[in-house]
Design goal:
433 residues, alpha/beta, 4-stranded mixed β-sheet, 13 helices, 21 strands
Length: 433
């Protein structure tokens, strides 16, 4: 397939400069299918051994998951920089008795996985660390099957910290129906990103599993998944960047985003209520679409991101640009994402006159003395969300984004969609030494 010249330029150049054509932002933008739904549905379909999942995300993480699941005999599985691929595959491969190795990028090898490995070992998985204890790479050496039991026997029980990545909990839930006893998970401490856990349970139930959410206790009964078809919804995390654009665009701007449902399983639909306080109103249309229009923003914002951490960068940038004092909590998991997102935000906001200040006890404050966009260069730290969270600032002035290809992780068509909306994307050649 021949790539467009713009796409080729983005791939081979180290930066792009974004400029806005001027006037209100109007029209329609396409958001990708949900990466979170897609990757969960692919694992569950594999466990169900059948069913069709349509409207899959074209994100690199999802394409990677598809490719690895289609190669069951590989001696090594490379999860690259994809957290869901690393964590979901660890549980899937361990519980299906595979003997293989699982690795990833240098950054992935710095992201802890000990909580998940410890839990899987309790379920009979034989897993070794081939590098640093508690971190990938992993060597999976099959599993010791649990003995069958009577129907009324107790669940296999695990105790798991709730304040770590919800992907660990989702990984365990999805393999729960395949265990002879089923699974009961006791969550301890503050539970983060609970909507992602609910999304996992909803998809499991769609494929025939029996789940119960009892607050601090999650139960999954032993029952084979049923091959079922599923259509993936549009991605609310990706939609958040268009909310940011409407918030920062000239007066009179509005935008329509298709494939987004009023009743969504995605926790990042919280962007609807958050952005209304930052000046963007949402109207749900009859054909699974939303229309975004501008309204008067609030004078301040207090928001807990425990259940929607992937929105934090977007909200921080918009709040700083609008000069709206914002208190943010629930950011703990941002330290172990593709980069330390708190540190990255602090460094990049400072270039524009903004600040993300650690006030202690898990509270951060966004502020800006004299926020200006005048040709600064944004570093992206190998993090797709850094690139897309800062891109809307181009509506306020020219902006250069380093390593724009990072968006392939979740939203490969992002720069193309910006061009269609009226932005100009000019490649910046990499320096020659």
């Amino acid at each position: 397939m021949e790539l467009p010249l713009t796409t080729l330029a983005i791939i081979i150049n180290s930066s792009i400069t974004l400029t806005w054509a001027g006037g209100p932002l109007r029209g329609k933008a396409q958001v990708p299918a949900s990466k979170s739904e897609s990757n969960r549905a692919l694992i569950i379909r594999a466990l169900a051994e059948g069913g069709e999942v349509s409207n899959l995300s074209d994100a690199n993480d999802t394409r990677l998951m598809q490719r690895l699941l289609q190669d069951p005999t590989a001696p090594t599985f490379d999860a690259e920089d994809a957290g869901t691929v690393m964590r979901f595959l660890t549980a899937y491969l361990a519980m299906t008795g595979r003997q293989t190795e699982l690795t990833g990028t240098a950054r992935m090898l710095e992201r802890p996985i000990g909580v998940l490995v410890d839990a899987l070992r309790q379920l009979g998985a034989r897993i070794e660390y081939t590098g640093q204890e508690g971190y990938p790479p992993l060597r999976l050496q099959g599993r010791t099957p649990q003995p069958a039991t009577e129907e009324d026997a107790d669940f296999t029980e695990l105790t798991v910290r709730g304040d770590i990545s919800s992907q660990y909990i989702s990984a365990l839930l999805m393999i729960g129906p395949t265990l002879p006893h089923g699974l009961r998970i006791w969550l301890t401490g503050k539970v983060g990103s609970r909507p992602y856990i609910r999304m996992t349970q909803a998809l499991m139930q769609h494929f025939g599993a029996q789940c119960r959410d009892l607050g601090e206790v999650l139960e999954v009964r032993p029952q084979a998944y049923q091959p079922t078809n599923y259509t993936v919804e549009g991605d609310w995390s990706a939609a958040s960047y268009w909310y940011a654009m409407v918030a920062l665009a000239p007066a009179g701007s509005s935008l329509t985003l298709p494939t987004l449902r009023r009743y969504s399983w995605q926790g990042d639909q919280a962007i609807v209520s958050i952005m209304e306080k930052l000046g963007v109103k949402t109207e749900f249309l009859a054909d699974e679409a939303v229309r975004l229009t501008q309204v008067e923003p609030a004078t301040s914002l207090t928001q807990d991101f425990t259940d929607c951490p992937d929105l934090a960068q977007t909200v921080a940038v918009v709040a700083a640009a609008l000069g709206i004092p914002t208190e943010m909590t629930g950011l703990e998991s941002l330290r172990i994402k593709e980069t330390d997102r708190i540190a990255a935000l602090q460094l990049e906001l400072a270039k524009f006159g903004g600040a993300l200040t650690d006030e202690g006890e898990g509270r951060f404050r966004v502020s800006a003395e004299d926020f200006r966009v005048e040709g600064q260069t944004v570093a992206t730290y190998h993090d797709h969300r850094m690139a897309m969270a800062f891109a809307p600032l181009a509506l306020r002035g020219p902006l250069t984004v380093e390593a724009p290809q990072v968006v392939r992780k979740s939203y490969p068509q992002f720069w193309k969609e910006l061009e269609q909306a009226g932005f100009q994307t000019d490649p910046v050649p990499a320096p020659v030494y």
